[in-house]
Amino acid sequence: NEWVVAARLADARFFYAEDRKRPLAARAGQLAHLGFHEALGSYAAKADRIEALAGWIARRLGWEEEAGPAEEAARLLKLDLTTDMVKEFTSLQGVMGGIYLREQGAAEAVWQAVYDQYLPASTEDPIPRGRVGRGSPTGWTRWSASSASGSCPPAAAIRSGCGGRPRGWCGSPSKGRSGSTSTRRRRGRSSSTAPS
């Protein structure tokens, strides 16, 4: 077992060194070659949708100064899917993107939004960093505008774009974890529409 662990660590060191030879943002073109869904296109198309929605969320909440960082983070959210490290160690998706962006000098709000994009995954997980834990709406916006916009578009797009019926918290008419009808359904739809 020790030999296997040592070999995996050597692989990780190699992939880390190789990935750092190119800036993460330079990998954007590679997303066009990664399929997201046959009816919805590539991860590049998904990144475009997330970026538009992230800016829309920030502006809709009245946080204009956060719109730029939210859009930047949204553009970068899925780029680590093209790295050797994430191809080999898929559980590091999001995490490696944040690490690479931090090393490349990205703004703190941007790299943290990328790193924390899957948080919280459960009730035991920490909330995304920033000023979220201290109750500041500006810190929450940096996270929500990228993370929430990265989670909702697939559900909304699958439902409207290709006739599917996604299940879960975002856009589902199904029962939530607590067994109650989803909040979105109870409250009805907003009169303003998000970008598609």
Model description:
The protein is 52% helix and 3% strand. A two-stranded antiparallel sheet has the order 1-2. A hairpin with a 3-residue loop joins β1 (35-37) and β2. The longest helix has 25 residues, at 137-161. The chain has helices at residues 2-19, 43-60, 64-76, 84-88, 95-103, 108-115, 137-161, 183-187; strands spanning 35-37, 41-42. It is mainly α. The radius of gyration is 18 Å and the shape is globular.
Strand content: under 5%
Total number of β-strand segments?
2
Overall, the morphology is globular
Number of DSSP helical runs: 8
SSE string: HEEHHHHHHH
Q: Uncertain segments of ≥5 residues (pLDDT<50)?
A: 131-144, 171-193
Share of helical residues: 40-55%
Strand order of the largest sheet: 1-2
For the CA atoms, what is the radius of gyration? Answer: 18 Å
Largest sheet: 2 strands, antiparallel
For the terminal residues, how far apart are their CA atoms?
49 Å
Oligomeric state, counting identical vs distinct chains: single chain
Query: Which structural class should the secondary elements be placed in?
Result: mainly alpha
Kindly summarize this structure in a few lines:
The chain is mainly alpha-helical.
